[in-house]
Write a structure and sequence with these properties.
This is DUF4143 domain-containing protein. A hairpin with a 2-residue loop joins β2 and β3. The chain is α/β, with parallel strands linked by helices. The chain is 30% helix and 30% strand. The longest helix has 14 residues. The protein has a single domain, classed as Restriction Endonuclease (3-Layer(aba) Sandwich).
Length: 122
Amino acid sequence: MKTIEELGILFSSHKYRFYNEKDLQLAIEQMFIANEIPYEREVRLSNKDIIDFTVELDVGKVGVELKIDGARNALLRQINRYLSHDSIKALYVVGTPYWVNNIPIQLNNKFIYRHRILVGVF
């Protein structure tokens, strides 16, 4: 079983090609498959909360939320709701906004891991 640190290494070393959030979801899903990481896509945590992925790691079920746009405060409200669910032990936020690496490292006494995808024009 993978550790959360190993997942971070995968996010950091992966080469991303996407045009929108659905493309990014597909790229992440393919990365999970290639690395034999058990996952579920678009998991309904409640009537209001659907997280992009959950993965089974050494710490338990970890949520993965992807963002390529949007506001920081809206994301904070969203991940606060996700982390209020007992089934989610930690959360990984992966995205392009400049503020991704500036969100708190903990909410609801659960850890938040972050990876900012740097994009460029070629």
